[in-house]
Amino acid sequence: MTDLPRSAVVRAARLASLPVGMAGRAAWGLGKRVGGKPAEIVTAELQARTAEQLFSVLGQLKGGAMKFGQALSIFESAFPEEMAAPYRAMLTKLQDSAPPLPASTVHTVLAEQLGPRWRRSFVEFDDVPVAAASIGQVHRGIWRDGRTVAVKIQYPGAGPALLSDLAQVSRVARVATAWVPGIEIGPILAELKGRMAEELDYRLEARSQEKFAKGFDGDPHFLIPHVIKFGERVIVSEWIDGEPLSRVINEGTEEQRDLASQRYMEFLLVGPGRVGLLHADPHPGNFRLMPDGRLGIMDFGAVKRLPHGLPDEMGRFLSLAVDGDAEGTLAGLRETGFVRPGMDVDAERLLEYLEPFIVPLRTDTFRFSRPWLRDVFQHINDPRRPNYAVGMRLNLPAEYLLIHRVWLGGIGVLCQIGGEVHGRELVGAYLPGVDLPPLGEPVV
Known about the structure:
Layout: H1 8-34, H2 39-61, H3 63-73, H4 81-93, H5 103-114, E1 122-125, E2 131-132, E3 136-143, E4 148-154, H6 158-171, H7 173-179, H8 185-194, H9 196-200, H10 202-215, E5 222-223, E6 227-230, E7 234-238, E8 243-244, H11 245-251, H12 254-275, E9 277-279, E10 287-289, E11 295-297, E12 303-305, H13 312-322, H14 326-335, H15 347-358, E13 366-367, H16 370-381, H17 388-393, H18 401-417, E14 420-421, H19 423-430
Parallel strand pairs: 5-11
Antiparallel strand pairs: 1-3, 2-3, 3-4, 4-7, 6-7, 8-10, 9-12, 10-11, 13-14
Helix pairs in contact: 1-2, 1-6, 2-3, 2-4, 3-6, 6-8, 12-18, 12-19, 13-14, 14-15, 16-18
């Protein structure tokens, strides 16, 4: 394989094969049912084939198509179980794998970014990548000072491919919505497009990573590798080992799940206050559970700059909702634009709508799980429920869009891990403006 397929026509044709392939498999399924094959078996085979094609097309294209697939993969916990099984493995696989670039292309990029004598900086360099994702792949090497390093290399042509892919994916969004019922695809695509320029400039990513690394130096709970050298399309940083979070999700012990969940939630909360940045790419491929219990974090291409930390009103409104103050919660949401002026919203119905999101803070510990997340999605997306209309009247201010996506994605990952966390304690310690009322009887 050479570089990313750069031709817009070729890439559009591959993306178009997704709905066409789905239609073809539907016809195949109808033929099988007419032929007497049980409907449930045909449906399972159809979903498995669709999942296989989805992974193949998005993975081969890399770029925006695969970035979109990764964004979807963290929401698989919300799938109905009968639908989730055939997609789970394929979507999760998108989190840390893609067909690699040939060595000759890798060497060309390194020569352009680090100079024609780039090999002199390395004692060893492995041409075979250890990880490959949406816009780049990672190689292992030994730096001239003896440190083992990770060398992140951007795919040639990644920029035009990203924008072209996201435009094409937008055109097949209806099909994508069928893959992930209950999730709004449009805002995910809009937000991805909005931050592509930053993700493509590895110089910005390297500076963000180093800011995190310095801020968390010596932290007993987290390990963030320092940057050694960087260019526009290459980052050389310290190597970290550890158990990939995707493996903890698939086969981790209960102890590993609990520890990983606790560290993961803490990192999302503590980062903005400590370094003024929110790590905005929460999928499991960016995290490692270290042998000493720390959480290793990688990939800082997507960040939200929060120089004053998370907004104080987040903690204030959350505290009011946990305390059952319906009128205060509604007034606060109006004040910050979550409810538009003049919009008629019943305060008690609003509190009922928000209740599933508050439940994790009503006890000392809470175990996030796929069934819980499915119940939440059913709660907010079921038009038969009285509070459904409340959700239709809420607004998401622009400054909260990325924060909202990160936290929604983070909850999705926590439900994949399935660990128990001291969420109330973490929120009380790290979320500005929070003042939770004393615990009452545990909510069952």
